[in-house]
Q: What sequence folds into this?
């Protein structure tokens, strides 16, 4: 069985709304404990969860990094791009050698999009849908694992380096998850956070992030 104190602390750490309400003493602890039990199937009694919530030291955790998160979010700028496609490729020498060709096909100054995500066994590229047919011809069919259309990108631009701020990604991803929005891909680089979602979730995602940025 998981350590309930640690598990409850993790759940609270990942929920900016709950942390704020705990700090302001606006939470019905029993109701919150029941929600944790129901949503996360915790293997313990409701009394154990209530005890863990009450022992959670919200004030000491808040002073560690939450003020930094609030400040970063408050000063951030949000923009969107739609009609994107993704291509998941096998990571091998042939694919690596073909990647440089992409840059000559993308008009960055004209606003075209190119994102490249690399993990241990795959490389994913995010491009404008209009470029998909041409770029697909560069690679062998055997190296194309999957193609996904109807994607959107939300770009959050901060006024400082965010890579040294714990909890920022968790704050955003938890807010999206709470609103039933799935993240297709995400990347953080210095002062920029890119989130890829389905086109159908674009407006909802924008509204959720916009509200989060403006209430921080």
A:
């Amino acid at each position: 069985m998981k350590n309930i104190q640690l598990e409850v602390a993790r759940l609270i750490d990942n929920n900016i709304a709950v942390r704020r309400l705990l700090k302001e003493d606006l939470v019905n602890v029993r109701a919150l404990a029941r929600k944790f039990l129901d949503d996360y199937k915790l293997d313990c009694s409701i009394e154990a969860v209530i005890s863990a919530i009450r022992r959670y030291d919200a004030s000491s955790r808040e002073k560690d990094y939450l003020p930094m998160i609030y400040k970063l979010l408050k000063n951030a700028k949000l923009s969107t791009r739609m009609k994107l496609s993704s291509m998941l490729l096998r990571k091998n020498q042939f694919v690596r050698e073909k990647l440089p060709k992409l840059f000559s096909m993308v008009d960055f100054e004209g606003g075209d999009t190119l994102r490249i995500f690399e993990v241990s066994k795959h490389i994913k590229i995010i491009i404008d849908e209009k470029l998909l047919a041409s770029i697909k011809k560069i690679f062998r069919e055997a190296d194309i694992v999957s193609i996904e259309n109807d994607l959107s990108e939300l770009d959050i631009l901060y006024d400082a380096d965010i890579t040294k701020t714990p909890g920022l990604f968790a704050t955003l991803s938890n807010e999206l998850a709470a609103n039933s929005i799935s993240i297709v891909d995400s990347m953080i680089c210095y002062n920029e956070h890119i989130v890829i979602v389905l086109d159908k979730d674009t407006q909802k995602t924008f509204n959720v992030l916009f509200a989060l940025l403006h209430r921080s």
About this structure: Residues 58-74 form the longest helix (17 residues). The beta strands are 77-90, 114-118, 122-128, 144-157, 185-189, 192-198. The mean pLDDT is 88.
